[in-house]
């Protein structure tokens, strides 16, 4: 690992000076090579799928693991999208001329060497490599063993394409995925690695954050709530709850909790319970919600309020006030996305001011928290921490800054 | 500690909604109270000084520890300066209307609960409290035991003043300073504490960063270099080296290393060596530098290149090229401040592009890296890491962000 990190550092110092032209050429070369070499990637992927089936992987996981020609084409296309995004490097964020004549500029610079620890789908390998490269960084990828063959084949394609475009092949490196040691070395390589992004389940993220001495950005755990206020348009609320929960239950921006104001509970609860049940959602309801549901519910346990189901389940509860909803979210939310449905300006302002999360939605589904939806063109993950980046992370979030100061022999007077 | 952190969280949720008016009133109340209650602060400080003398603290440390009426007035005045700075909270950083009509805004919000672990001077207690308060955060202060009485007296004044202005007294809390346990609890209180800033020597910073599971920002270790290029104005170079080294040798932006291009070494080295020696600086020189110095030098050891002296010492070396200077800095620098003296535009551009540090100076002393000098009005430390904030940290660096999204019943189509 330390050898890989040292090679990455060397690569990073070249990448930091690469022009947008060269980096975009590398991204197009990656896209072309992925399409051209799809057969070898698909062959490697078939091995992972076969091994997954043999080891009894759930069919939903097999689906997440599987590549097809169409999926590879989409992954390649995403690289062209990243090539089309503005280069964050060199952007001047602040600056001016100080009273003494010194000229200051705070400019965006690459982060350096970025480590990525992730599970699941092989497309993350390519997405992460493309974004870190465009932001001028070298990347160390540590994927899951279930996708080992696919990741190996993909990284071979990536490295060849990057080298073909005149950038160091070591801009992209895959770390061994079988031992925990490679993760441990990665997250403790202070001075060699500038940032580690864990992307996956809560277990993976906790292990990385607890063990890391390298700075990390936590991503992806979403215990999201929809709060239906007393002043909500109830039809709108049903649509938003359904979309937030059932559009793609396995992703982090899916709602896991429904909070309903008591004043509209009698009318709203039966309606939303019927629609959720019809969509196949299991309701884990508190007693007040259950009493009004008019459809089968499961009694909510204490742990339900803290559970990110990632499935067709939702915890549901009647609350006495907006303040109660805010307190409940403060206690149980993961700081990802929280939504209010209301027609009342004051309630909306209160909720957006008081709720402490990466994204707060008014009259919109939680499912919109996404780099693509937010117009960032891509995302490497959704940060749920407050340091450095919060919410969808794309190119600017993969950079740091540097103050550049020009003078003419300036010395500082004694104070 | 966990009780204190929980009280801080409650205070932080009030502070987050406090208007600038109220926060500035609290800062003015702090300034007034510091002046009014100076006698009790000075009495407490006298105890620390007495204990320091008894335990044989060096006179320079006694000076750093000592408060006077004039110093308290200056500390109070700094609070009024912070009150005059713009409120970072609520600033809209990005935003727009998405193609589907959703309105997005990324706004600055307070970080929440900030922990500060620091050594030395009692003014840090007040400065840190004022800045974190203005940025809408609650602060947990863990100072050094050498300043215990002073810090206790100061925090009593701060809490009273904050409460008098209508904000929670628990916005400012002092943690026990005698056991290591309070630091350990602080830096592992994930979910309760949002950010810990260690400020002090390398030992303190390493201990915090290695043990922390809470996000941290490293501050303050500065192994800074001045590189005198072949195209330098040599008189200017002497002034910049002298100012960078000797203006205040004990601060992190002081230069600890001098790199001289071989082409001007013969003329420059004797000149700068004479001036440095005259200023009482000990030169730890490599053999090429020593041979030209014409004044007494000490042979540089390997560890000299990695030492932050914080004293009237400098490591000095002749290098063959700008590229060698850049490599040396990459290997030994701490990412704080690096300076080049040159009249050559190409050399200046090359150096500023290649050197990876919080601040890179062209024809200016390293001593300018400072929040006050950079026009930030204050600073809570100088970050030497790349995540979140790099260089002098002031109010915006003590905030996070939140996406606020307003819709009209928006749901996301299936993809």
Characterization of this structure:
2 copies of one chain form a homodimer. Chain A folds into 2 domains: 2-218 and 385-405, 3-Layer(aba) Sandwich (Aldehyde Dehydrogenase, Chain A, domain 1), CATH 3.40.605.10; 224-368, Aldehyde Dehydrogenase, Chain A, domain 2, CATH 3.40.309.10. In chain A, 42% of the residues lie in helices and 21% in strands. Chain A is built from 14 helices and 16 strands. Chain A starts with a helix and ends in a 5-residue tail after the last strand. At the A-B interface, strand 2, helix 10, helix 14, strand 13 and strand 16 of A face strand 2, helix 10, helix 14, strand 13 and strand 16 of B.
**CATH class membership of the largest domain in chain A:** Alpha Beta
Q: Which runs of chain A of at least 5 residues are low in confidence (pLDDT < 50)? A: none
**Largest contact between chains:** A-B, 70 and 70 residues
CATH architecture descriptor name of the largest domain in chain A: 3-Layer(aba) Sandwich
Q: What is the CATH homology-level superfamily of the largest domain in chain A?
A: Aldehyde Dehydrogenase, Chain A, domain 1
Number of helices of chain A: 14
CATH fold assignment of the largest domain in chain A: Aldehyde Dehydrogenase, Chain A, domain 1
List the quaternary state of the chains: homodimer
Query: Could you tell me the mean pLDDT of chain A?
Result: 95
Class of secondary structure makeup of chain A: alpha/beta
Q: Helix amount of chain A, in percent?
A: 40-55%
Q: What is the overall silhouette of chain A?
A: globular
First and last CA, distance of chain A: 48 Å
Catalytic activity (chains A, B): L-glutamate 5-semialdehyde + phosphate + NADP(+) = L-glutamyl 5-phosphate + NADPH + H(+)
Main location (chains A, B): cytoplasm
Subcellular location (chains A, B): Cytoplasm
Enzyme class (chains A, B): oxidoreductase
